[in-house]
Amino acid sequence: MFRVMVAALVTLSISTVAEAPVQPYPPDFHAQEITTNGTTIHVRVGGKGPAVVLLHGYGETGDMWAPLAVERMAHHTVIVPDLRGMGLSTKSVGGYDKKTQAVDMAGVLDTLDIDKADLVTHDIGNMVGYAFAAQYPSRVTKFVLMDAPVPGIGPWDEILKNPLLWHFRFGGPDMERLVAGRERIYLDRFWNEFSADPTRFSEASREHYAKLYAQPGAMHAGFAQFAAFDQDARDKAFLARGKLAMPILAIGGQKSFGPTMAAVMRFAATNVEEKVIADSGHWLMEEQPQATIAAVRGFLDAGQ
Q: Which of 29, 87, 108, 126 has the fewest CB atoms in 10 Å of its CB?
């Protein structure tokens, strides 16, 4: 009986993905599907002014950026994709290396007739954002990276030795069978272990993202993001044609990457500003949204 109930709840979660109670985007935003580079990317667009692209990471989707999008929409045209295979984007068979996903983002901007933009990224979004900035440096005006390393950059090999990062190597058909129907349990581990205070990652957000990651093919796509890290590290040698020159803000949570975020980026860029968000772990927009938004606002608005 219990198994039947669990199966019914999982089925319901898949069918009600769009109804989960997280902060919505304002009515002024619209969503569209952009087909590019052999996949289809779900994109939210709103606001006015110079463009800013917000890229999410694992365990969340572009929905994480709604509070920042609300703050930025009076100053920027805000573009919020779901990365390849994640959220409401197509669950592609391949292409999860970050160099390919950077081309996805170039296609999104081309479709929207946007030449250049600020970037604000978190977690795996950092990796896609870096690959984009390295391949298209003239298209990035300012770059904010939050609380995650970049494969092949700086102390990457030492970071891989951290036992908390065992999930970097977790994936494949058997692992997918292990987490099938247990997506919430698997994701809770991320939200709990990488938070300064797990209660700040709300139950509403946990339910919302667990439902999205329970969609057919979603966990496979998530595992593929991590499986591509070795290729991403190799690609960095090809992509990094000298250090990035655009202004960069490297933000770390005090109880997570902290100042290491800036230390990592100084291996790859010449103009890096450091910011540590007090009393926060990895999930900056969930744990300390106001402080994080203030840091991003101050950096993007400086000099304007």
A: 29
Question: Strand order in 272-277's β-sheet?
Answer: 30-36, 39-47, 77-81, 51-55, 117-122, 140-146, 248-253, 272-277
pLDDT digits (tens, 9 = 90+) for 149-207: 999 999 878 887 777 776 767 778 878 888 899 999 999 999 999 999 999 999 999 99
- In the three-class reduction of DSSP (H, G, I as helix; E, B as strand; rest coil), residue 286 is classed as helix
Instruction: Decide: 176 and 151 in contact? Cβ < 8 Å.
Output: no
The amino acid sitting at 206 is: R
284-to-65, 201, 244, 258 alpha-carbon distances in Å: 11, 10, 24, 11
How far is residue 175 from each of residues 36, 92, 105, 171, 187, measured CA to CA in Å? 30, 19, 29, 5, 14
CATH number at residue 215: 3.40.50.1820
Region of poorest pLDDT, from 148-157, 170-179, 224-233, 278-287: 170-179
Of 79, 127, 86, the residue nearest 107 (C-alpha): 79
Q: In the chain, what's the furthest Cα-to-Cα distance?
A: 62
Q: Identify residue 62 by its one-letter amino acid code.
A: G
Tell which phi-psi region holds residue 114, choosing left (phi > 0), alpha (psi between -120 and 50) or beta: beta
Q: Go through 57-71 and write b for each residue having 16 or more CB atoms within 10 A of its CB, e for each that does not.
A: bbbbbbbbbbebbbb
**Each residue's pLDDT tens digit, 53-68:** 999 999 999 999 999 9
Helix or strand run (H / E) with residue 98: helix 98-111
Domain count, the chain: 1
Going from the C-alpha of 205 to that of each of 48, 89, 297, the distances in angstroms are: 28, 19, 24
- Residue 236 lies in domain: 2-301
